[in-house]
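thoughts on these tokens:
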Amino acid sequence: MQGSTHLPGGRSVRRAGPGSRRGRIAVPLSLLLLAEAGLIVTAAAPAAAAPHHPATQAGTASPAVGEEAAARLTAAAQDRRVEVVGARTETTTLWANPDGTMSLETHAGPVRFRKGGTWLPVDTTLVRGTDGSVRPKGHPHGLRLAGRTGAAGGDLVTLGGRDHAVSLGWEGALPEPVLKGNRATYVDVRPGTDLVVEATRTGFEQYLVVKDRAAAERAATFSLPLGVKGLKATKNAADRSLTFTDAVTNKTVATMPTPVMWDASRDGRGRTATHRAAVDVEVVPEREGGYSLSVSADREFLADEDTRYPVTIDPAVYFGTDFDTTVIEGETADLSGATGLRVGREWQKNEARSFISFPRTDAVTGQDVLNAELNLFAVWSDQCTPTSWEIWDTGTVSTSTRWSNQPAWRTKAATSTQTHGNGDCGPRWISEDITSVVRQWSGVDRAVDTLGLRATDGTDTDAFKIFASSEDTNAPSILVTFQTPADPVKDHVVYWNDVLQQTFREVGGAPGPLARAGAMMHGAIYDAVNSARCAEGETRCLGAPYLTRVTASNGAVPDVNSAIDHAAFDVLRAVFPGIDYDDEIATARSTIPATVTAEQRAAGTSVGQQAAAAMLEARAGDGSATVVPYTGSETPGHWRPTDATPATTPGWGLVKPFAMTSGAQFRPAGPGGHTSMSALLASPEYAAQVNEVKELGGAESATRTADQEQAALFWANDLDTTYKPPGQLFEFTQILSRQEGLTVAANAKMFALVAFSMADAGIAAWDSKYLTDIDLWRPETAIRLDGDGNAATTADGNWQPLSYDLEGTHFSPAFPAYTSGHATFGAAWAKAMEQWFGTDSKTFTGTTEDPNALGVTRTFSSFSAAAEENAIGRVWLGVHYRWDGTDGVTLGNQVAQHVGATKLMPNSAADWVKYEDLHNLGGCDALGERLVSEHRWTAYQCVAVNPVETPDHVLYVK
């Protein structure tokens, strides 16, 4: 059997029968599938927190979430990006960002390799081992160089592993090599000739450096033992390169690009290694296995009087699938082994174009790409005047790609004039936006994406440039930021807002007390989050505290989500003592990852409890519990009950505001400027307003359109068991938060500002309703009674407003008409949102819980448009006059403007303050823009650390 009860200030509603949990809040939690984890989440709980520590890797997730989802939750809680360690590859790194987006950095060459189950960074710096050999500090293919050897020589270089390996030998003694960075120099291995080996990311380059003309003949021809394991070596006759294929599958495993030689001269622009010649190689099988690699330099080049010594002869070997190359008009050699990518027409040579291949991962395919940035290291430019060059999406390339068979140049991604590498504009990192083509890539499933670089004017020698290739220490990379599908768990601010809305449904009543509860809860949450962030460092604060900035007694950095949970929990159970929130706090706490230490949880709990205590103390005796007698009046114009429901919260205008000095601070002059009831009732404006609502707001109106009726019911939410007007506006806030991708920190501040604005709007509206000389009667009374004395109005004793309850009974809310609470609340919300986002023009789709408009959604192109429809909708509903809405909108705007100008102000500093070190300019700008958009700081700047060595930037704020 179902029972019925009457709630103070509300309509009679149905309550659940014996099966319900009286006194408990039941927030609906959905059953969701985490595809990436292959796990079922049985409770749609809030986002999880994570400990604050310098490392930004996602730790072990709680059992309910996979690593990527846990990383997103941790990033939001820590307000910093968190790496999804399990998603690492040799060339890619995946990060979760605090705003819920993901970023994938892809390098054209390997940046790490796996050894014994552990990822190690690629580091081509050469060091000596205890056995005398030389190795890079970290190499994906086990590169090993010889130390000092006896007269018989031996393996000079070994590259590869258990299944595939290549070795180059040296016949004769090798001296102890001189090591410098990634280069080992064996001095005078032959008279007047040094042997040099350079470690690259996937292989090595071996040079013979012929120091003088006297040594040239001896170095013109030489043979090197070429050992292989699991491989076959084949010479490509067209370009003299070598290909190493798997002995069984014939799959290409390694390459030796076309070898070349160059002298020490400089061209007319001052660039070295431009006077070049071909080098021939022959690979001859040996009886005992392996091969002999015969190298023949160009004798004419060596003997040419114009050749300047020393001369370098260069064969190289590379393992792996990463690939970039250069093509030059008229050139038939394979140039994929070069560590420089040439673009444009070189001095006294033909035009060059280059291609970079990036391995694709599943992380970006099919995603909503927000932005993408190409990072290149500019090695050389012929001059410093900015000259135009372009980045294109192209087809794939290979060792056989030449000028004559270039892949298709499909879509231009960017045109740049950044020019570096010469004199005052020396080598440095540069970044370019390539979002447009990466968005195209995300819609195509393929293994490799390729970018082409070319000069805008291929005949302009001033435009010639060289960029570092994938084999260089400064390999190209792409940083892509993309939006993921919504997480199946909510951040804790939004979670507790849901709990608050469910509380509104349970307790019902007038909107003022509900808005006060929301402001108390969200104000305490803000102070808790702000205190937790401040504990990480002064620059991390969200801004000025509302009431207090507290610290944890145990000295640990507080877990933000624990702080949110206990701030909300303590406020709600104090404001609504009849409701049990134990299940809600348990659900929230269950989603915090195991990586959050007991000390951090305790610190967060302490901070949250202190923030809640400060709020409860500040609001004690605020007038919200004071009973003010008010029965209305039978005098025409003054409010009187329209049914058996007495006046609701008549003293609410006397409640202490959250930001205003008093409820009367922005009190409107009165309807149409009238301050006396007699003058108001006699005015033509009054008659016009009564007649308008009579025509448009009646239950049987023939003038009101279907859309106006839908809008009126959409905005109503006057009935208990709905989330009421404050709850609807909080729901809109959630919709905008999700739509705009706000972080936990942003939600903590924005929801607090919205809540303060709505709470003070309720106080201001109730001040004008009850505490002025014009406590205006509802249209229902004005139209049905013949008592206003205005000849322009005609009574209709059968008139009823459109507004109706679940039983079909028409009703008017139980408080005076002027000003409209709905309009004041709505306008305060709209102005708070406009101030937060910096614009009124945001399109969003809102929802309703009014039982007479269930399933209805309405789309608005601006916040003010929503507020204005809300206001006029009360006329269409038959419960307000037009000036109730227009003056309510003005009042709500004033209230929210005051809140925004006086509360939760951004941090400030007289001079620039360092905030964080960021990897590249795009990431720096993104974080800086977020800090400003979240009203944490008012300005930012990104300063390059040392663009010659790194794309890193430092973010400064003030």
